[in-house]
Amino acid sequence: MTELLLTAENIGLTIRGNPILHNVNLRVAAGEIVALIGPNGAGKSTLVRVLLGLLRPDSGRVWSRPGLRIGYMPQRLALDGTLPLSVQRFVTLGTPAARARVQAVLAEVGAAHVLDSPVQAVSGGELQRVMLARALLREPDLLVLDEPIQGVDLNGQYELYDLIGGLRRTHGCGMLMVSHELHLVMATTDHVLCLNRHVCCSGHPDHVARDPAYLDLFGIDGARRLAVYHHHHNHHHDLHGAVVPDLPLSSASGGEGGHRPPVEQDRG
Amino acid sequence: MDDFLARALLGGVGVALAAGPLGAFIVWRRMAYFGDTLAHSGLLGIVLGTVLNLNLQLGVAITCLVVALVLVLLQRQRRLATDTLLGILAHTTLSLGLVALAFLETVRVDLTAYLFGDILAIGPIDLYWIWGGALLALGALAGLWRPLLAITVHEELAQVEGVPVFPVRLAFMLLVAIVIAVAMKVVGILLITSLLIIPAAAARRFARSPEGMALLASGLGCAAVGLGLWASLRWDTPAGPSVVLAAAFLFVLSSVVPGRSWR
């Protein structure tokens, strides 16, 4: 029994004579994680803006379940340096909440220590977590994350994806996630849409990874990096760079084809 | 204290109180040039008010608002950047005001007073307009505070979270137009922007919250009015520019005094 949260049918959009989106179909069901991948300029962010109702498509239609609560994590935040705004104020701008509640949500995303910092003073990775906290505070039915790992170093990226993947369990929300790399989203995703102005291919991540259209789009080299994705560290780094050991489970699988040995990225 | 001096002080303080919080938003939203453009169109409002026999401040407010709406319309075409559009609008409307003024042969107009302010000539009626406009602007801004802050931080995020972005933005423009209309008498249309942004900029280093910065900007604006008027009497300098210089002095002072910067 899957209840639909959001659907888009035959979306087409042309901006100043440039076709940006052509005949795009998409659906997100409750509790489902859908990833939107594609190269730069493929129209991913534009599609997200259409889905959020920020941009009107030339053709097609977007439907969302009545009363759907969306938590949106935008790609970037360009906050003027003259605005004195603490993280707590930033997080509660969209949803008023008591300090304890804000602290709890920030703790959940691993950013409790920046509660009283100015927004402009937190690092790139912390800012992503803070924006995620603001989206979670709305108790959303659907999380829309636009390039959620931007400005985060490599180990932080895996950590952030683990965190995001876990949110489905803890919050029960559906997710639409934009990324330009498949290997990062594969572990947690139910359904992948590979976009390059139109939907090149879609389906389960394993299926998409073998699809000729995907290989065309990203090239063999890009596709090969998939092998890396399945590897496991025996430890990871927290926000301060300290080593945090993982629970003993690391029976690292080498990926499907085993193109390459797992690569350790230890930059402690 | 002389009556005219008391009125000048009272009028200046009224303007400074409203200009503080509004100026803070103009600084945060990087809209200084926008405020300047609206102010430039104020002269056209004077002519309009004179011809239509309206209250001049009402004429200015209406003209500013129309110019703001024209800007919103022009922004829909995306060929020219906003600052280019603002430059076109600012100087076109100022020149239009000057040319239209020349046609009013029967009316004697003290151009300098409109361009640079005539705070010492504030009459009792002016005071009503100033305080009425200032209180209206402050009250409306208080009601608008939360959504306006949200769209200042991230417009699209605010829209997804349910803020009616366009009406809020329009209401903010209206408030700027009102404050420009009431501030004109104090510092004149060419100097109004300074009263909006200099106190806010001076307040930045000492503020830890948006509200704190807005309040401090109001306070510093009032201090600048007092200081400027005092200097103007002491050295017999033009009052409006003296107030602006006093604000600039406070700004310089704020950036050199030792204090804990939040960041």
Automatic annotation (TrEMBL), chain A:
Pfam families: ABC_tran. SMART domains: AAA (SM00382). Residues 239-268 are annotated as: Disordered. It comes from the Bacteria. The keyword Zinc applies. InterPro entries: AAA+_ATPase, ABC_transporter-like_ATP-bd, ABC_transporter-like_CS, Metal_Ion_Import_ABC, P-loop_NTPase. PROSITE patterns: ABC_TRANSPORTER_1, ABC_TRANSPORTER_2. Keywords: ATP-binding, Cell membrane, Ion transport, Membrane, Nucleotide-binding, Translocase, Transport, Zinc, Zinc transport. Residues 6-221 form the ABC transporter domain. The keyword Nucleotide-binding applies. Residues 257-268 have a biased composition (Basic and acidic residues). One of its GO terms (molecular function) is ATP binding. Coiled coil: none annotated. NCBIfam families: PRK09544.1 (NF007090). This is Zinc ABC transporter ATP-binding protein ZnuC. The gene is znuC.
From TrEMBL, chain B:
It comes from Candidatus Competibacter phosphatis. InterPro entries: ABC_BtuC-like, ABC_TroCD. This is High-affinity zinc uptake system membrane protein ZnuB. It is found in: Cell membrane. It is a multi-pass membrane protein. NCBIfam families: PRK09543.1. Keywords: Cell membrane, Ion transport, Membrane, Transmembrane, Transmembrane helix, Transport, Zinc, Zinc transport. The gene is znuB. Involved in the high-affinity zinc uptake transport system. The keyword Cell membrane applies.
